[in-house]
Amino acid sequence: MEDFFTIQGEGYHSGRTSYFIRIQGCDVGCIWCDVKESWDIVTDELMAVNDLVKKAKSSGAEYCVITGGEPCMQDLRSLTDQLHKNGIETGLETSGCYPLKGDIDWYCFSPKKFKAPLDEAYERADELKVIINHPSDFEWAESHASKLKKENCQLYLQPEWSKQERYLPMIIEYVKKHPNWRISLQTHKFMNIP
């Protein structure tokens, strides 16, 4: 759908220069999704993997985030292989609803209530990022954290952007009582960058 060089605004790699590759297609259907235009696949907007990797390499980025939509709906092997061959570390942001076809260095698992994740997501996750959109989401976040397989998986709670004023104070208090969690903010939106 789009690709651009920017600063990662969320989660563990927040503040890091990153080349973003946003893959088209998503059937998860989050009502608060801020990139709903990524849901459909528009074939006249497709780009060759070689061209994407050249753009990422020429940007000077050492880290690339593959996101969506839901990127794991696609076979990412060619893309991740070529990024690695060009010395670019590769991260993924996924709901965990589809199996990963490709080799990545960082697996950010952000489960959604609209489609159940696969067991693979709990095994692969380096980072669990849960969007807080309702008070019940804290318990829901804990239910996912309890299924993670990696002991050092980083845990993040992130307020849904349009409800940040309401839920950020709750998240702050929750993290004070549960220090295994950290707060993720969409800092790119504060910086007014993509």
Helices and strands in order, then pairings?
Elements: E1 2-7, E2 17-22, H1 49-59, E3 63-67, H2 77-85, E4 89-94, E5 106-109, H3 119-124, E6 127-132, H4 137-145, E7 154-159, H5 164-177, E8 181-183, H6 187-190
Parallel strand pairs: 2-3, 3-4, 4-5, 5-6, 6-7, 7-8
Antiparallel strand pairs: 1-2
Helix pairs in contact: 1-2
Describe this structure in words.
The chain has 194 residues and is α/β, with parallel strands linked by helices. The protein has a single domain, classed as Aldolase class I (TIM Barrel, Alpha-Beta Barrel). 27% of the residues lie in helices and 22% in strands. It is built from six helices and eight strands; from the N terminus they run E-E-H-E-H-E-E-H-E-H-E-H-E-H. An eight-stranded mixed sheet has the order 1-2-3-4-5-6-7-8. Helix 4 (137-145) links the parallel strand 6 (127-132) and strand 7 (154-159). Helix 1 (49-59) packs parallel to helix 2 (77-85). The longest helix is centred in the last third of the chain and has 14 residues, at 164-177. The protein starts with a strand and ends with a helix.
- Named at the architecture level, the CATH assignment is Alpha-Beta Barrel
Work out the count of structural domains: 1
Distance between the termini: 13 Å
Structural class, by secondary structure, is alpha/beta
Within the largest sheet, what's the order of strands? 1-2-3-4-5-6-7-8
CATH class: Alpha Beta
> What is the CATH topology?
TIM Barrel
CATH fourth-tier homologous superfamily: Aldolase class I
Q: How large, in whole angstroms, is the Cα Rg?
A: 16 Å
Note the beta-strand portion: 15-25%
Helix and strand sequence = EEHEHEEHEHEHEH
Biggest sheet features: 8 strands, mixed
Task: Name the helicity range.
Answer: 25-40%
Low-confidence stretches: none
Overall geometric form: globular
Mean pLDDT: 94
Number of separate helices: 6
Q: Compute the number of strand runs.
A: 8
